[in-house]
Write the structure tokens for this entry.
Amino acid sequence: MAAASDDGKSGLSLVSQLSRILDSDPFIDDLGFIHPTQLKSLQEMDVESVISFPEHGKMNENAVPAVGNSVYGEGHDMFYDRSAFWCANHKLAIVVSVLPSLYQCAKAAFLETRHEYDHFMKLEMTHCHTSLYNSVIQSEYLYGETLLCLRNRLMTYTRVLVIINCDYKSAWNVRKEMLASTTEATLSAELRLCNLALSHCPKSEEPWEHRRWVISQIMNYFSRGKMPKDVLQGELKHVEFIAEKSKMNYRSWHHCSWLVQYMPLSQMALELRRWKPWAQSHVADNCCFHFRRCLFEHLFNMISKESYDSQTCGEDRAAENQRICSHDTLQVMELWEDEIKWNEDLINFYRIREALWMHRRFLFYMWIRHIKPNVSFGSCAANFENGTDLKQTTPDRDNCPGDYCHFIAKEMELVDNFFSMSSSNHVEDANRQQILAATYKLWILLMLTKTQNCNSTESEICKKELVHVEGLLKVFGSERENLWDGLFKAFKVGCHSAVY
């Protein structure tokens, strides 16, 4: 029993020390859990640091350089257990051997304080209801000071818990409850806490979700529902930092996609151009391409809304709205054309990259949904009846992308080039590239049958191409023969019975 009591006191001491460290340097931006043998090398480092805060662009007048195992803040010294913690230059290290005691003690204290807080909240609510029933005007809370003290303790314990275990959702939810009505400075500090948690666990969902909640609070209470420009830029820089540190991080890119809804058209266009070099050097990272798809989807939806608004507004504003809509539409069209040409270049240069083919499917779908004018598929049918192959219709790539027959023909030509280039090469990589190309062609045929009212002639065109694709897939993807048989069986039932 005495040993357990000593462990509890030691754990509480560690929690208190860690809390003082975090309070003394609120701009700690990196956290790591280290082995005890690594601690000595950190302590022996000759730390020469000048504390600066890039987020604010100025020096802290009360801050003093941190040396060795000391944390300085607010003009006074504060020492901590050298065998458990190390902090300097806004970097924090915790020895793994103390984590169990630190976490268990913080969790036990959190649960106990939470229970106590709920108890006093019920008493306060009962007192309020009694006062209202007796028509007594309540000037102050009966348990206000006690509740404030308990809130501060909950914030202290949950901060320790979430930086050790980022997936502890209950702790994050309690912090939301405590921060429901607070100041903008406190919410900014909460964003820094999310940064600290993500520095050692960038793929954890809870810190990202909490981060979005904090930003929503800032928008609702301090920005009239709009995303502050400095917050948006800070979030984009943070995502870029995480993306370099943690490859194929779906959660960071999902956060970036969430930010798209608060971007103006000019910002979306800028982000497409800014992230292009990064995407080009990470062609296997589908998360980045998903972010680009979110940008394009919002761009097309935006110009569709502008077009509708220009048609429904009054005559006095119709001309101006139409001019703006035409300018934005032209800009989005240019971005789409650049994207699909760039995607083709990447496919030709980087072989066997499924993310590139998936991105091209999306671009094709955007063409069908937003770009393609009301051009009849019958022009392609007429060429077929005259003996002209579908891929031999129009060879000029610079023609208007809305030309139905031209665009389909160029897509078929892109696919068929891979079959002719690798027809004599039956190595595994070549086969994989041909399967990707053939499945893209099959997907195009499925999209065409879903978006057209197929007559007999047009159905013959699809059947001709389908026979070609079926033969290729069964040759180069024979190990998936059952899959191809099922797909083609569903496709042949009818033009509109195909599965996406």
Remarks:
- The two ends are 65 Å apart (CA to CA).
- Residues 5 and 11 are 10 Å apart (CA to CA).
- The longest helix spans residues 99-133.
